Write the structure tokens for this entry.
Amino acid sequence: MERRSPSPTPIAGAGALAFSGSLWRGAAHAVPARPDPAPPYGPLRPADAHGIALPAGFTSRIVARSRQTVTGTAFTWHDAPDGGACFADGTGWIYVSNSEVGSGGGGASALRFGPAGTVTSAYPILAGTSRNCAGGATPWSTWLSCEETATGHVWETSPWGVPAVRREAMGRFNHEAAAADPVRGAVYLTEDEPDGGFYRFVPAVWGDLSAGTLQVLKAGAATSGPVPCGGTTPHAPRNEPFTWGTVPDPGGSPVPTRRQVPGMKVFDGGEGCHYAGDTVWFTTKGDGRVWRVDLLGGTYGLAYADDLRVPGPGALTGAEAMTGCAAGDLYVAEDGGAMEIRVITPDGGISVFLRVDGQSGSELCGPAFNPAGDRMYFSSQRGTSGSSSGGITYEVRGPFRR
């Protein structure tokens, strides 16, 4: 496995790296978000030629389509594009994308961009795997591609095409996303099951995922009473304490990992995951929630919950992939619903950033920023056709908060 030094510029994906900056510190996202009365980007304009409704100042383009040759290359883009991340590459960058195809037809591919944003090459980085859904970037610039099957693995891949390695020690379960925490030397993992767990993998040596300890979040005793939330969600539950319990058999056979540790906190369909500033966030699509884990305080709670919101714009439906930017904003994509990507600001406001029209049979996946933070990449997994062969990967460019 190729090792490269971490880029000095921020990179973000389904499991983004740590960002610096005071906005990630303190009480940011400490209480459930509510509809933002003054969205940071303003209202959406009518949909553009690609069917994407964006705020003023933003534009979109299509960079790849499933089963079509990527412009400027000889490479055919994969079906069902899903989780993704960006990596610095000299004066350009690379966007990697998973393929959520089953029965050994999955994997991951890469789009390489020059400094002006032109695609210079495209190529596979993983093949022969199954249902590669989400994943996450590491501080040493590798991509963790996660298999969403009951006995799925995490595959460590290289954006530059070095052969991938299966990371057995990270457990076999219905893997979804991963997020690396360089401060504690851990990788957090979500599980897409109605009774799934939230895990962390602590490698024996940071930077080497070949051996280590798999643990799962255990709920502590709940505290009582309402949380002072400025009147927005007066009956929201308090943050609760948690501990980590070691999974005795990460291989998950014959007992699945989520059933091995008494007291494991159950989450309904773990999806996207993002780490920054001593906090890790993750989504659960079963109940449309965004969770916040305070790693310094040792508590977890809600950053967004549909059933706690006040009247306002439509609910976040099927909370799926997520990423963040250096300004402290979280971007959460929908699996179905209104096909929107929503932004949650550090002061607790939630608003629509973009909407994809005419693709109700699809889901939005793989949001990630390029190193400069002025371009976001994401995919519509099944596009306008509603089939995995109709996937579309987009770029949105504009004045993102940085």
Notes: DSSP finds no helices and 27 strands in the chain.
